[in-house]
Specification:
With 244 residues, the protein is mainly α. Helices cover 68% and strands 0% of the residues. It contains 14 helices and no strands. Helix 3 packs across helix 7, helix 4 (50-66) packs across helix 5 and helix 8 (151-157) packs across helix 13 (211-219).
């Protein structure tokens, strides 16, 4: 166990400065990331919780960047980071009236809904998901690499503001409605910026700032990347506001 943890620590430190190592570590522990998401949501990502899985994946990457040996074993540290991120997500969603608070009373003294969530870790399911994820991530990673993009680039380039996420969603929706634009992306290796900007009403400067992220989400809809799409499904239509 100690030897395994030392091995993980070495991988984490390598991943801090090496995007390829970070991508490999994320792929290796997709089962762990998914399992921690399921423990929190009490439901599989496929049952409407794709957003939470995307948030958990980004939290895992952030844990890689912020981890230090003095903070204890990495996996418990990453688990806490994922849980904290998901709690923040639910708080934000609650402000918009979209979810039931997991901090609401569960009917017992000093007990909340969060406290009642059981450990639903499914080791066999996690293994199967991890195997499928690794295959798909390797293929998708190779396609991204042809564009000079890594998974860590995508995480770094992800929009943080709700209105910018909404702008990227408009770009994606327009591209999906016009498959010839997706074909052109794959065929030329270039983002059809003018057509996407005009068709989606999104400012070209916004698109250029998040070009790597846009390339990734558009590519995810070109070759049946079902698992990858789930990872990138943090895109959510914003309630008003412009992406300009």
């Amino acid at each position: 166990m100690v030897r395994t943890e030392h091995s993980i620590v070495g991988q984490v430190y390598a991943a801090k400065t090496n995007p390829e190592a970070a991508d490999a570590l994320i792929g290796q522990y997709m089962g762990f990331i998914r399992s921690e998401t399921v423990k929190f949501t009490h439901a599989a990502p496929e049952d409407g919780h794709e957003d939470e899985l995307s948030i958990a994946m980004l939290a895992f990457y952030e844990a890689i960047l912020s981890y230090e040996k003095g903070r204890g074993a990495f996996l418990p540290y990453a688990a806490r980071a994922i849980r904290n991120r998901l709690i923040d997500h639910y708080r934000a969603e609650k402000r918009h009236g979209n979810v039931i608070s997991l901090h609401a009373s569960a009917g017992e003294e000093d007990s909340t809904l969060l406290d009642t969530l059981p450990d639903t870790r499914d080791e066999i399911g996690a293994y199967e998901t991890r195997t499928a994820s690794q295959r798909e991530i390797q293929e998708f990673g190779a396609q991204l690499a042809a564009f000079g993009i890594s998974f860590s680039d995508v995480a770094d380039n992800c929009p943080r503001q709700e209105r910018t996420l909404a702008a990227c969603r408009r770009v994606l929706d327009h591209a999906r409605a016009h498959p010839e634009l997706l074909d052109r992306l794959v065929g030329t290796g270039r983002l059809p910026m003018n057509e996407l900007a005009a068709g989606s009403g999104t400012d070209k400067k916004t698109m250029e700032r998040h070009r790597k992220y846009l390339v990734a989400i558009l590519l995810a809809f070109t070759n049946g990347y079902e698992i990858i799409r789930g990872h990138l499904r943090q895109l959510a239509p914003a309630k008003g506001g412009s992406g300009r």
